Amino acid sequence: MDTVLSQITDLVREAATHQTALRIRGGGSKDFHGGVALRSEVLDTRAYTGIVSYEPSELVVTARAGTPLAELEAALAEKHQCLPFEPPHFGPGATVGGMVAAGLSGPARASVGAVRDFMLGVQLLNGRAEHLTFGGQVMKNVAGYDVSRLMAGAWGTLGVLTEVSIKVLPVAPAEATLRFACGQAEALARLHAWGGQPLPLNASCWVEDAGVGQLYVRLRGAVAAVESACKTLGGERLDNAAVAADWTACREQQLPWFAERAQAPQPGLDLWRLSVPATAPVLALPAGVAPPLVEWHGALRWVQAPRARAQALHDVAAQVGGSATLFRASDAGTESAEAVFGPKNAALEKIQARLRQAFDPAGIFNPARGAALG
Fold first, then answer.
1. Which domain holds residue 217?
2. What integer pLDDT is reported at residue 220 of this predicted model?
């Protein structure tokens, strides 16, 4: 592996010398994000692979960036442990480095936290081809400016991740999924009320199917807590083995609600991610836009809409204190950061620019992603 790392380092050094843009890429399963056109020379991390260390009793694992995400999850499952934030794969080639770089979390995110909350340490190559280490393998090593968490969601714009250390958790001893037939407003009201109670809520999903709203709630925790919550909440209890595939499909955006987008009679529908306060009411979406799929106990609203509705979606999200992001474009080539994220925050933009200058002074890492991020 030292040879592989040396080759990657040489590639970064040469790119910095000639100011050649590099597109850091693992399995490429998230290349679609934001509809950004990615044209730079590829720096493939998949050869730098392997689980470096895993201490189940310490709840920490360290893996190289090119390690397949499925391989890491399988190793954890053997010890009845998991990545509790349920990172989406979006394809068989997903890697550990891509998981961190994208910073995307699955259905349980609202209850357990995001990718960045489980980051303990990273090793990376900066734009000067310097191999740097931040953090460690225990929480007490994460002090000062937390660069490890900064890398989660940076999309490779600050450096080439080579190794990451992540906190893991035991698989919950009990799980149950309940289904309730209800409209969106009622589903949000139920979730808001349950959120203030000591219930083992882990994930939720509200979706309208053939005009009928269905709320799915997943409970995880101690056996007694889950059984008590089932009695308290009511609803229809579903078979765990049967519904597990549905939660995976939700994580991977393979539910019918997502699949129908590709077959929609109206072409050019983009998938938008609206991040809003969990207590936000039903959003007044633009005319002609179908009801959303709601996750994270109300804090995440997926919306399908044409690009012409972009500003309206930004406005709707902003009105409740949230934001709208273009997640999957109907066509690649979106170059405008405003089209992806809406109007820029001047103060935040300055901070991002200074961070990129510190880590990548020549601007060689994922410049298309950097432009989209602002």
1. 174-328
2. 98
